[in-house]
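Work Package 3 (structural annotation) set out to generate three-dimensional models for the target panel prioritized at the project kickoff. During this period the team completed the workflow that converts sequence records into discrete structure tokens, so that structures can be stored uniformly alongside our sequence database. As a representative example, we reproduce one entry of 265 residues exactly as it appears in the project archive.
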Amino acid sequence: AIVIVCVIAMPCLKAQNLFTRLQHRASAAQSRQPSWSVPLNQPYPMLIQVFRFDTARQITPAHADNWNFGVSKGLNIVPGFNSEFDFYPPSYLMHNSGAKDGFGDPMFGYKYRIASGNEAHGNYAIAAQLTATIPTGSYSNGSTDASLSPTLAVGKGIGHFDAQSTAGVTLPVANTDKLGRPVAWNTAFQYRAGPHFFPEVEFNTTFYEGGPHDGKIQNFLTLGLVGHWKLHHRLGVTLGAGMQIATSTYHDDNHNLIFSARVPF
């Protein structure tokens, strides 16, 4: 009986030890970067380990209410080595119009943190990220072709303030003339208001190169608030909400409400 118990318990103990080592590596990696909040909408230069589920309500120019459940967010893992691996399951898109509801495309990502320093050592972060999209969406809710999106992310903090900025381009692997190569430039300004809250302002800009919107520019002003609460060791809960307001003449939607629920671990 003792032998049977040992045989059953050994894999569990090994899995527990592996999880503990991964947690220690994540803590060590994150101790060398600022403790800023991840913005509501845009990418970020830090390494985070979290499960995240976002929801967005988008209003089209025809005044149709569309809902996006997931918003291409998901699981982020920090195995150490200045790296982060991301998996974003397909979002579910619900249209209050003639368009059919359905799932979008899954995404996979890898980030390498090039350089960083915590609040006592420079208060900055620089990272490069590559995200891949697989075209499996239903009823035209995803892209017709796979794509790669290289992104550069930087951030600098001064006192209770920080600024994070990212620039990236989406490169379809086929049908470039049809899909184009949109360039996204995002910048977020945050303020640490006490131990829990980060009010923020984001500027989310897309420059369309090629495709049906060639030459157009779309810009949003996003006003948001993110709150963090620690539960036990690395485990915590993060909640955020905001509104995305179009400031450009051309825009796909406007007055978008964003809700974010995250579980750091």
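The first strand starts at residue 50 and ends at 59.
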